[in-house]
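Hi support team,

I've been running sequence recovery on a batch of backbones for a student project. Most finish fine, but this one hangs at about 90% for roughly twenty minutes before it completes. I'm not sure whether the input is malformed or the queue is just slow. I've pasted the structure tokens below so you can try to reproduce it. Let me know if you need the job ID as well.

Thanks,
M.K.
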């Protein structure tokens, strides 16, 4: 019995170190955050004038431009953008897309963000384009 208690005492310190290491690794994994939107323009569920020319999203992490995108579609499913979205060369947390002329109606913004660390996030939201806000 004495031998077993001694062996358990010897294992406590390495086991405690292993648990601390595992907790640290979990925390580090969480630190490698995914890119999440911080500011949407236009905002989700906003009513904006049909003269709105751009959709822009500010993220909390830098993006990989080649793999991140914003698309905007009209209620009929047709694209409502002039070209592909871009990640700003001077601020890799800012992604935008130029809109084609809007008509009154509901538009859906869909985005995919690949963070510099390779994590992928995506989402969508709607806004209304109105003739007079």
């Amino acid at each position: 019995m004495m031998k077993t208690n001694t062996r358990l005492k010897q294992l406590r310190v390495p086991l405690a170190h292993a648990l601390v290491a595992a907790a640290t690794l979990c925390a580090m994994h969480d630190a490698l955050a995914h890119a999440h939107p911080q500011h949407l323009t236009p905002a989700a569920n906003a009513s904006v004038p049909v003269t709105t020319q751009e959709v822009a999203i500010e993220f909390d992490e830098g993006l990989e431009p080649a793999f991140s995108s914003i698309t905007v579609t009209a209620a009929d499913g047709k694209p409502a953008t002039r070209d592909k979205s871009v990640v700003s060369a001077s601020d890799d947390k800012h992604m935008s897309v130029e809109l084609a002329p809007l008509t009154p109606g509901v538009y859906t913004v869909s985005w995919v963000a690949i963070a510099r660390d390779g994590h992928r996030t995506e989402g969508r939201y709607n806004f209304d384009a109105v003739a007079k806000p």
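--
Follow-up from support: It reproduced on our side and the slowdown came from queue contention, not your input. The first strand starts at residue 37 and ends at 41. No action needed from you.
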